[in-house]
Amino acid sequence: MTNIDQKHPTGTDEFLKGIWKQNPVFVQVLGMCPVLAVTNTAVNALAMGLATAFVLVMSNLVVSSVRQIVPKQVRIVSFIMIIATFVTVVDYLIQAISLDLHKALGAFISLIVVNCLILGRAEAFASKNGLGRSFLDGLGMGTGFTLGLLCLGGVREILGSGSLFGVSLFGSSFQPWVVMVLPPGGFFTLAGWLLFFNWRAQAKARSETSNVKETLA
Amino acid sequence: MNEDPLWQIFLNSCLVNNFVLAYFLGICPFLGVSAKLGTASRMGGAVTFVMVVSSMCAFGINALLTAMDAPYLKLISFIAVIASTVQLVEMFIKKMSPALFRALGIFLPLITTNCAILGVALFQTNKGYGFLQSLVFAVGAGAGFTLALILMAGLREKLELARPPEMVKGAALAMILAGLLSICFMGFAGLGN
Amino acid sequence: MSDATDTTQMAHAADKAKIWPMYRAVVGLGFLCGFIIVGVYEGTKPIIQRNRIEMREQAIKDVLPGAVTTQAFMLNEQEQFVTVPSAQENGGLLFAGYDESDQLVGLAIEAQGMGYQDVVRLLYGYSFESETILGIRVLESRETPGLGDRIESDPVFLKNFGTLDVRLTSDGSSVANPIEFVKPGEKTDDWQIDGISGATITSRATATLLRESSTSWLPKVNAQKDAFLKGKRSP
Predict the structure, then answer these.
(1) Nearest-CA distance A80 → chain C (Å)
(2) Is the pLDDT of residue B111 over 60?
């Protein structure tokens, strides 16, 4: 056990990788439906992110604790069943917290079930790792997903309605870019963020290669 | 009970509220399988087929659950039934029509986790459609999905020989294309009147 | 020969041994999931129902200014309006609003129709006294944010209501002047609705669905006005 632990990264790394190195939205480009559909305001984005994170953490915990007793053949069925359970739970919890929020998110809460990110983490991580590690992985990925949604929701709300979290930013003279809160705006904002990250990665790669050349020289 | 006329439901699910470009459902296959025109149209056919079958199943389940007064089981039973329907359809096609199976085969497992399928099932129950309405809704959604996929594939084939800057390649370029397509589809809004 | 049957039998036995854990896992998990879902459903049910009713009450009070208490009504098979417990959630209901001294303020009626993108559902308040539509409140819409959703916020458009004339003809069989939709700034009569430029289709759809709903409901509710007047006092 200690051997395995030494090979594996530490718990903090497990948590942080979901936020930065393997960010589900910008790096893995997973679970795109909610990313684009409900990010027209920052509040919706935050709520969707938290709901997904909750399902992710809970399903990771349960999958990890039953991983020894579930045979390989019925693995996917069992995972989907666990995920669907927690999505139903989240659906009722959101209805109990705020009906307005439930109306804004609509059927997309139920569609968390088919978010490839959750099944992906259950299959790739939680079914192979211990309870604590799976919890941290779920928490990290969930946080990363929420942050990604917030990045999109923030930009779309600022440009599309001139406000952030419902607080008006520019006063009444601001003419909002309505297209940003409409479906095409979702695609364009995500494209913008992906371009930004590609540009950063390229700049980094370029400076690294020039460093290597310098050391070689 | 919803009383929308059938043609309105079809136009709505196919063009006005296109599943891919307005609801963002089924983005994964939309980006993944839209590189070639041929595969795109076959994938569209497979999705439409499964949509119609699972929509009919979902209608039955919903009626059953309403009779049993157990709405909390909706999601879990929808997903279970869709997954097993896809499996059954796969086996059935394999047995009955090997040619069709060769055309659709590799796409069928991919479809299980396609959110558009679950989306059809959920939206039709949310809107309270009857059996015929659900059927038309599913056909419309499938046609809209196929249309979006084929248009996207056409655009991407044209771009194959273009040389975009290095950082635009891949997902970012696909997103920009999808955004432009989505703007075009906004022109259909208001058709249902 | 016997060796072969032995091996197949052994293979079968091995298969059976493998099937049992599969059943156990799936059925066990199914039970667990069922318990969780039913537990949460039962736990949150009263809260959700309270939220729903609160939301509906709020909408009714918004379209019937001055209303303090409400009572739900339903049209039964004999075309009679009868009271139903307010906790009921199904559609097709009318709501009467009463002020502090239990006087009838008006009726809140639900209407729905096709908007620009999808179905628009709204609640409108009707006053018996002035025979006008007092206000509207959108319950459900997917109209374009910033354009179509201005039917809820545009001050000029909202000024249409409050004085929107839906008087009945003298015999009470139909609305004297069905609601008309006119271009912004061209309103001359009290039964016309000024549209919003930039949200033409949504505001026209609103006018259409108000016209359809008012022409079908108002003669019926006026014929049985007494049911609503005494609705509060009779149990």
Answers:
(1) 11
(2) yes
